User: Fold these one by one.
Assistant:
Number 1:
Amino acid sequence: MKSEAAEHADFTILRYAQVWEDADVLLEGLAIQPDDVCLSIASAGDNALSLLAAGAERVVALDLSSAQLACLELRVAAFRKLEHAELLELIGSTPSNRRWALYQKCRPNLGEVAQRFWDARPSKIAEGIGQAGKFENYFQLFRTRVIPWIHSLKKVDDLLTPKSLAERRTFYDTAWNNWRWQLLFRFFFSRTVMGKMGRDPSFFRYVEGSVAKRILARTKHALTELDPSANPYLQWILKGRHLTAIPHYLRPENFEIIRNRLDRLEWHQAPIEEFLEKTPAGTFSKFNLSDIFEYMSPEQSVALLKVIAASARPGSRLAYWNMLAPRSAPESLRDRIRPLPELSKKLLAEDKAFFYSAFVVEEIR
């Protein structure tokens, strides 16, 4: 089974230097147990590491991109060689003027491909490795070129100040949601601009309707129904670092757990379709599938779900996001895959990485 995404998108560049998917809802959806063997889309590695922190027996991370795996590999090296505060500096969560020196401490633990990748990017390391991807640069443009035309720095800080639910709703309606916000947001997060500057244009092949309108509605939810002062993804978008919240894998209580369990993690550059076709039945019990179905036709999605089900243990769980293209197991697979709609809806409402339109949790029968 060939990878449809690999045929249409460019995977030679570093697209995501962070994982823009909320590990808190992922872990609740998957309900990790001590005997779980997890398959995870690698991306930058954040959520694969969170699966270790949650206590999985083994985690296998896959990606089509050597650049994405270089991000995971540097994170693994950083957990081995740095202390927690140094890790936050290297990522860019906290200010630092010594990131190149921190990288040098990690470099001996990298393979040759990852060394070449990061050696060629000293300026990206100096900014913080969490800023090194195309998607992060897209948000940087929004932060530095668009937001100043909409709101002052003080107004941004006010948004990120803790408030009650009623206060957040009032602030959004009276102080934040002006005509410039509506106009410039719809332009910057349009299909055209996002395809050119943020995501690969091929990722929109199966998207119908207004991209910006859907993302704006989810953003309003994040700014009102959720607490911006507890949202690390929103803080990075608006401030370029983490302030009062950090993603799951970077939290201090998870640092030593991850460091002590790194030998349970492996990674491979391979299409998930080809990897699973070579995997014995019953190998995996939990699947973090990121948003991979977003880039596939409905027919290809069904074919991959069949391959996943064949590699899974009974009672396994799958979790994945839809951003703009609706994907889930169809009725034809109900004998193999059971949806968990109430859990999925609950977790979407809590999702701090707010641009997704759906979070799907399903169970293998």
Note: DSSP finds 19 helices and seven strands in the chain.
Number 2:
Amino acid sequence: MSVRKPFEKHLYDKYDNKAKDALIKLLEDRGHKIISVSENYYADVVSEYKGYTFHSEAEVKTAWTGEWPTDWDEIRIPERKSRLINKYNGCVDFYIFDNSIEQCWRIEGRKLTADMVKPAFGRNIRSGETFYHYPYKDAELLVVA
């Protein structure tokens, strides 16, 4: 088992509802019907679009303010989110919001592969914690209207 960042309730309380609300707005603006937003430790939002069920997960990258820094080659998604990829057979979308919850990157879970998992380094990252390292140029940038 890899190193995991401990749950930080104060960050959850500060960002979770804002990110979910923005995600719901994005999905509804794209024509999705929201099915569930219950807190069950799985996907944050379950929606339906054109007869298909979608599972979506919202995260906030608090260090991202303003334009995406082009020297950040990758978007990092904690490896612990692999439980969602496995549960939904890759059919889960990750929405990584900026600090102001005004824009986000969308990454399809099926595109996150085991070879992308490696350690990351940073002031808020525990030694040995692993992440999916996904090229930001391959993600879809969305603006919250």
Note: The mean pLDDT is 91.
